[in-house]
Amino acid sequence: MDLQAQRDLQLLNEVEQNAAVTQRTLANNLGVALGLTNLYLKRLTRKGYIKITTIPRHRIKYLLTPQGMAEKSRLTYLYMQYSLTYYRQMRERLNVILTERAKAGAKRIVICGTGELAELAYISLREMDLTLVGFVDGEQGTFLSYPLWPVETLSNWEFDTVLIADLEGAKRLQARIIKTGVPREKIEAL
Fold first, then answer.
1. What SS3 string covers 127-166?
2. Using an 8 Å Cβ cutoff, are 69 and 165 in contact?
3. For residues 172 and 158, what is the distance between their CA atoms, to the nearest angstrom?
4. By CB neighbour count within 10 A (0-12 exposed, 13-18 middle, 19+ buried), where does 118 fall?
Protein backbone atom coordinates (compact mmCIF):
# COMPACT_ATOMS: atom_id res chain seq x y z
CA MET A 1 0.00 0.00 0.00
CA ASP A 2 1.58 3.27 -1.07
CA LEU A 3 1.74 6.50 0.92
CA GLN A 4 -1.01 8.12 -1.17
CA ALA A 5 -3.45 5.32 -0.36
CA GLN A 6 -2.52 5.50 3.34
CA ARG A 7 -3.20 9.24 3.41
CA ASP A 8 -6.48 8.79 1.53
CA LEU A 9 -7.56 6.23 4.12
CA GLN A 10 -6.56 8.48 6.99
CA LEU A 11 -8.43 11.45 5.48
CA LEU A 12 -11.55 9.38 4.86
CA ASN A 13 -11.41 8.11 8.46
CA GLU A 14 -10.98 11.62 9.86
CA VAL A 15 -13.88 12.99 7.79
CA GLU A 16 -16.11 10.09 8.80
CA GLN A 17 -15.37 10.68 12.49
CA ASN A 18 -15.79 14.47 12.39
CA ALA A 19 -17.53 16.14 9.45
CA ALA A 20 -16.70 19.60 10.86
CA VAL A 21 -12.97 18.90 11.08
CA THR A 22 -10.79 21.76 9.84
CA GLN A 23 -8.13 21.50 7.17
CA ARG A 24 -5.58 22.66 9.74
CA THR A 25 -6.50 19.77 12.05
CA LEU A 26 -6.37 17.34 9.12
CA ALA A 27 -2.93 18.67 8.14
CA ASN A 28 -1.66 18.20 11.69
CA ASN A 29 -3.06 14.67 11.93
CA LEU A 30 -1.57 13.72 8.56
CA GLY A 31 1.73 15.42 9.27
CA VAL A 32 1.65 17.38 5.99
CA ALA A 33 1.36 21.02 4.95
CA LEU A 34 -2.01 22.75 4.93
CA GLY A 35 -1.84 23.33 1.16
CA LEU A 36 -1.18 19.63 0.52
CA THR A 37 -4.17 18.73 2.69
CA ASN A 38 -6.29 21.08 0.58
CA LEU A 39 -5.10 19.29 -2.59
CA TYR A 40 -5.90 15.88 -1.08
CA LEU A 41 -9.41 17.00 -0.15
CA LYS A 42 -10.03 18.45 -3.62
CA ARG A 43 -8.83 15.21 -5.26
CA LEU A 44 -11.08 13.09 -3.02
CA THR A 45 -13.97 15.44 -3.82
CA ARG A 46 -13.32 15.15 -7.60
CA LYS A 47 -13.36 11.36 -7.26
CA GLY A 48 -16.73 11.60 -5.50
CA TYR A 49 -15.56 10.25 -2.13
CA ILE A 50 -16.21 13.46 -0.16
CA LYS A 51 -18.87 16.11 -0.52
CA ILE A 52 -18.07 19.60 0.73
CA THR A 53 -20.91 21.71 2.09
CA THR A 54 -20.97 25.12 3.72
CA ILE A 55 -22.58 25.58 7.10
CA PRO A 56 -23.35 28.93 8.77
CA ARG A 57 -20.52 31.38 9.58
CA HIS A 58 -18.38 30.42 6.58
CA ARG A 59 -17.55 27.00 7.98
CA ILE A 60 -17.07 23.94 5.80
CA LYS A 61 -18.43 20.50 6.49
CA TYR A 62 -17.07 17.38 4.81
CA LEU A 63 -19.42 14.46 4.18
CA LEU A 64 -18.37 10.98 3.22
CA THR A 65 -20.37 9.84 0.20
CA PRO A 66 -21.48 6.24 -0.41
CA GLN A 67 -18.60 6.01 -2.92
CA GLY A 68 -16.30 7.33 -0.18
CA MET A 69 -17.52 4.65 2.24
CA ALA A 70 -16.83 1.96 -0.35
CA GLU A 71 -13.35 3.37 -1.03
CA LYS A 72 -12.64 3.56 2.70
CA SER A 73 -13.63 -0.10 3.07
CA ARG A 74 -11.42 -1.07 0.11
CA LEU A 75 -8.44 0.89 1.47
CA THR A 76 -8.96 -0.54 4.97
CA TYR A 77 -8.84 -4.06 3.52
CA LEU A 78 -5.66 -3.24 1.57
CA TYR A 79 -4.08 -1.70 4.66
CA MET A 80 -4.85 -4.80 6.72
CA GLN A 81 -3.30 -7.00 4.02
CA TYR A 82 -0.24 -4.74 3.88
CA SER A 83 0.11 -4.72 7.68
CA LEU A 84 -0.13 -8.49 7.99
CA THR A 85 2.41 -9.00 5.20
CA TYR A 86 4.76 -6.50 6.84
CA TYR A 87 4.32 -8.23 10.22
CA ARG A 88 5.13 -11.64 8.72
CA GLN A 89 8.20 -10.29 6.90
CA MET A 90 9.53 -8.65 10.06
CA ARG A 91 8.95 -11.82 12.10
CA GLU A 92 10.86 -13.83 9.47
CA ARG A 93 13.69 -11.29 9.44
CA LEU A 94 13.88 -11.28 13.24
CA ASN A 95 13.96 -15.07 13.34
CA VAL A 96 16.77 -15.18 10.75
CA ILE A 97 18.83 -12.55 12.61
CA LEU A 98 18.32 -14.11 16.04
CA THR A 99 18.98 -17.63 14.75
CA GLU A 100 22.25 -16.50 13.13
CA ARG A 101 23.30 -14.75 16.35
CA ALA A 102 22.41 -17.82 18.43
CA LYS A 103 24.43 -20.08 16.09
CA ALA A 104 27.36 -17.70 16.56
CA GLY A 105 27.09 -18.19 20.33
CA ALA A 106 24.99 -15.21 21.38
CA LYS A 107 22.74 -15.82 24.36
CA ARG A 108 22.19 -12.41 25.99
CA ILE A 109 20.38 -9.80 23.87
CA VAL A 110 19.64 -6.11 24.47
CA ILE A 111 16.78 -4.58 22.49
CA CYS A 112 17.19 -0.94 21.49
CA GLY A 113 13.86 0.73 20.79
CA THR A 114 10.36 0.99 22.18
CA GLY A 115 8.05 0.72 19.19
CA GLU A 116 6.14 -2.10 17.58
CA LEU A 117 9.34 -3.60 16.17
CA ALA A 118 10.76 -3.79 19.70
CA GLU A 119 7.63 -5.68 20.74
CA LEU A 120 8.08 -8.10 17.82
CA ALA A 121 11.74 -8.52 18.74
CA TYR A 122 10.76 -9.31 22.31
CA ILE A 123 8.23 -11.92 21.19
CA SER A 124 10.76 -13.51 18.82
CA LEU A 125 13.40 -13.53 21.54
CA ARG A 126 11.03 -15.26 23.97
CA GLU A 127 10.38 -18.02 21.42
CA MET A 128 14.07 -18.83 21.23
CA ASP A 129 16.64 -19.95 23.76
CA LEU A 130 17.88 -16.37 24.23
CA THR A 131 17.85 -14.09 27.25
CA LEU A 132 16.67 -10.50 27.27
CA VAL A 133 19.16 -8.36 29.16
CA GLY A 134 16.96 -5.27 28.90
CA PHE A 135 15.59 -2.45 26.80
CA VAL A 136 17.49 0.73 25.98
CA ASP A 137 16.23 3.87 24.31
CA GLY A 138 16.57 7.64 24.58
CA GLU A 139 15.08 7.97 28.04
CA GLN A 140 14.26 6.12 31.23
CA GLY A 141 10.87 4.65 32.03
CA THR A 142 9.26 1.28 31.37
CA PHE A 143 8.48 -0.75 28.28
CA LEU A 144 6.54 -4.05 28.33
CA SER A 145 6.84 -3.93 32.15
CA TYR A 146 10.65 -3.84 31.92
CA PRO A 147 12.77 -0.90 33.02
CA LEU A 148 13.87 1.25 30.10
CA TRP A 149 17.41 2.57 30.23
CA PRO A 150 19.35 5.20 28.31
CA VAL A 151 21.69 3.87 25.61
CA GLU A 152 24.67 5.18 27.59
CA THR A 153 24.14 2.50 30.30
CA LEU A 154 25.23 -0.22 27.85
CA SER A 155 28.85 0.22 28.91
CA ASN A 156 27.89 -1.31 32.30
CA TRP A 157 26.00 -4.32 30.93
CA GLU A 158 27.07 -7.81 29.91
CA PHE A 159 25.50 -8.89 26.62
CA ASP A 160 26.30 -10.57 23.32
CA THR A 161 24.19 -8.49 20.91
CA VAL A 162 22.34 -5.20 20.79
CA LEU A 163 19.37 -5.50 18.45
CA ILE A 164 18.25 -2.13 17.07
CA ALA A 165 14.49 -2.40 16.64
CA ASP A 166 13.90 0.99 15.03
CA LEU A 167 13.90 1.32 11.25
CA GLU A 168 13.87 5.10 10.99
CA GLY A 169 16.49 5.91 13.62
CA ALA A 170 18.76 2.88 13.16
CA LYS A 171 21.86 4.76 11.94
CA ARG A 172 21.56 7.42 14.63
CA LEU A 173 21.09 4.77 17.33
CA GLN A 174 24.00 2.71 16.01
CA ALA A 175 26.27 5.75 16.25
CA ARG A 176 25.13 6.38 19.85
CA ILE A 177 25.69 2.74 20.77
CA ILE A 178 29.19 2.74 19.25
CA LYS A 179 30.01 5.89 21.27
CA THR A 180 29.35 3.88 24.45
CA GLY A 181 32.15 1.51 23.46
CA VAL A 182 30.08 -1.35 22.04
CA PRO A 183 31.96 -2.98 19.14
CA ARG A 184 30.19 -2.72 15.77
CA GLU A 185 30.09 -6.52 15.41
CA LYS A 186 27.88 -6.76 18.51
CA ILE A 187 25.25 -4.50 16.92
CA GLU A 188 22.49 -5.82 14.68
CA ALA A 189 19.90 -3.58 13.02
CA LEU A 190 16.64 -4.67 11.43
1. HCCCEEEEEEECCCEEECCEEEEEHHHHHHCCCCEEEECC
2. no
3. 22
4. buried
Does residue 119 register a pLDDT over 80?
yes
User: Using one digit for the tens of pLDDT, what is the confidence trace for 54-66?
Assistant: 877 778 899 999 9
Q: Contact, 117 vs 137, CB < 8 A? A: no
> Based on C-alpha coordinates, what's the Rg of the chain?
22
Annotate 65-74 with b (16+ C-beta within 10 A) or e (fewer): eeebeebbee
- Measured CA to CA, the distance from residue 136 to residue 106 in angstroms comes to 18
pTM of the model: 0.74
Residues 6 or more apart whose CB falls under 8 angstroms from that of 49 comprise 8, 12, 64, 65, 67, 68, 71, 72
Q: Which amino acid is at 109?
A: I
Could you give the angle at the alpha carbon of 18 between the alpha carbons of 17 and 24, nearest 5°? 120
CB 44 within 8 A of CB 68: yes
